[in-house]
Amino acid sequence: MRFDVVTLFPELFGPFLSTGMMGRAVASGALTVRLRSPREFGIGRHRSVDDTPYGGGSGMVMRVDCLVDCLESLDADAPEGVRAHRVLMTPQGAPFRQATAIALSTRPAVSLICGRYEGFDDRVRAFVEEEVSLGDFVLTGGEVAAMAVVDACVRLLPGVLGNAESATHESHSPALGGQLEYPQYTRPVEFRGARVPDVLQNGNHAHIEAWRRAEAERRTAERRPDLVLPRNEPR
Ligand code: ADE
């Protein structure tokens, strides 16, 4: 899978893309990332990419022409001619969820457009397929949100996670009905008076399975009542 990232700060992505699972995904060829700055398409001697807002007000607004030129240049030299599905990173977008990651990870190429300054010229919205927000808070730019999207998608690609780390039975996964995961334990069996539940130690897999299902439901209802669905309804 390919990600094209439009960012004024491509250097932020260096260690992220060369470390741990992202580094392995790049090395194996499962993940390709192209970083391109709209500054390359900036205006005038200073290569400006932002300007003051029409109608007045504080702050600067990112220009639409530099962003669209950057997107079109990425399309023009796209490997195998595969044009990316364009996603604008903005606090006004749809909340990013596991279902969003699953959907994006099936696409051959996705471009993530990161803003800085106070926001985008609204006309850029006509040039993207969707808008995604990392959550109901405002970041200084879309880069951290873009890294979260790349990370969540890449670990779903075939062959990136080993079998032992499979992404099929984890919090928010369809296999768990979008619920939170059950509690996990490892050695020592007792730590400062807190013991591993007996049911996990007796090797009865039917009991373990039932306990885990009940714990996942209890935990989800307690912590995230918004995730609890009427029985058997797919998310
Ligand atoms: N840019 C600034 N804030 C953001 C957010 N919450 N999600 C995505 N991109 C952003």
Describe the fold and architecture.
By secondary structure, this protein is α/β, with parallel strands linked by helices. It folds into two domains: 2-154, SPOUT methyltransferase, trefoil knot domain (Alpha/beta knot, 3-Layer(aba) Sandwich); 168-227, Trp Operon Repressor, Chain A (Orthogonal Bundle). The protein has six helices and nine strands. The strands form three sheets. The protein has a five-stranded parallel beta sheet, with helices on both faces. Helix 4 crosses helix 5 (143-154). The longest helix has 19 residues, at 205-223. The structure holds adenine. Residues 89-91, 115, 133-135, 137-139, 141-142, 145 line the site of adenine. Adenine (ADE) binds next to strand 5.
Secondary structure blueprint with pairings:
Layout: E1 2-6, H1 14-18, H2 20-28, E2 32-36, E3 50-51, E4 61-62, H3 64-76, E5 85-95, H4 98-105, E6 109-114, E7 130-133, H5 143-154, E8 190-191, E9 194-195, H6 205-223
Parallel strand pairs: 1-2, 1-6, 5-6, 5-7
Antiparallel strand pairs: 3-4, 8-9
Helix pairs in contact: 4-5
Bound molecules: adenine.
Adenine binds next to strand 5.
User: SSE order in H/E notation?
Assistant: EHHEEEHEHEEHEEH
Could you name the CATH class of the largest domain?
Alpha Beta
Shape label: elongated
Strand order of the largest sheet: 2-1-6-5-7
Our Rg estimate from Cα atoms comes to 22 Å
CATH architecture of the largest domain: 3-Layer(aba) Sandwich
The proportion of residues forming helix, as a percent range, comes to 25-40%
The low-confidence parts are: none
- Note the gap between the termini: 25 Å
In round numbers, the mean pLDDT is: 95
Query: In percent, how much strand structure appears in the residues?
Result: 15-25%
Which cofactor or ligand species appear?
Answer: adenine
- Write the CATH homologous superfamily of the largest domain: SPOUT methyltransferase, trefoil knot domain
Tally the structural domains: 2
**How is the quaternary structure best described?**
single chain
Structural class: alpha/beta
